[in-house]
Every structure is written in structure tokens, then in C-alpha cells.
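User: C-alpha cells for this one?
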Amino acid sequence: MANASDKDPLFDVHADGVDVDALVGEIRAAAAQKMRSGAYRGAGLARAERANLPNLQKDGGFFQFYLDCLRQSVCVDINDFEIAERRRPFGFAVVALKKVLWKLLKFYTYRLWSQQNEANSLLLSAIEGLDEKYRDRIRELEERVAGLESRTGKNP
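Assistant:
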């Protein structure tokens, strides 16, 4: 049984007693909640990747969208995070062990993340520089062609 709101579903759910619309609604609500809480910070980049780079040739605005997504997700979050444990028995001991391990390894991970952030930022700067260079060059060539066309009296 497919979701009634989908014209061409990616998959069909066939099970006795399953309310597909309710199930899809719950999934969408959970995803929306996680998005609001920041769990899917890289979702914009994922959307850009799904559309993929060959679409750059079809849609002039896609490249700008892709660059915006890269700007938003260029840096790895190196802030501390809360360590939690869902298992009840010995949960406090597991959390304490994880905190000790995190304190011992923090220096190395921060160093690695900092290097990754630097490499990501440099790559993004290079891409933005190339984009600006080629946009300027294309604009110059378009102006040159327009000037030549106006002198010869030929317009396409």
C-alpha cells in the first residue's frame, strides 16, 4: 500500500495493519524536529550532492547554491559535546570512562580537526576564486562580443 499523497513512490509498504500515511507522517515529524534541533546541519550540502555537479550546466543558479552549501558546512565542529549513555546498568561508569578517554584524546582530535578545517577553508577559497575569475572573464568576453557585433551591425 503506497502513500496516497505520493504519485510515484520510491517504495511501497505492504503489511497488514500498517497505516502508511500515519507512519510517513511520524517520520516527517521526527525529521522536522531533528532539523529544527540542528541534527541535520549538512542537509543543504546533501541536497546539493543529490542534484550533483552535472546539473551545473543546466541551471546557472545551482553553482551559487552549491557554494552557499559549502560555505555553511566547510568547518568541522570542534566543540565539546555531551557524553551520554542509554544503557542503565553501569551507565555512569561508561560515561565516566568515555569522559576520561575524551580528555586524553582531545588534543589529538582538535589538532586533526583544525587541520581539516584549514584544508576545507583553503579549498573553498580556491573554488570561490576560480568562480570569480571565470565569471569576470566571461563578462569581459560577452562585452567584447557585444562590441564587435555592434560595430559590424550583426546581432544574433
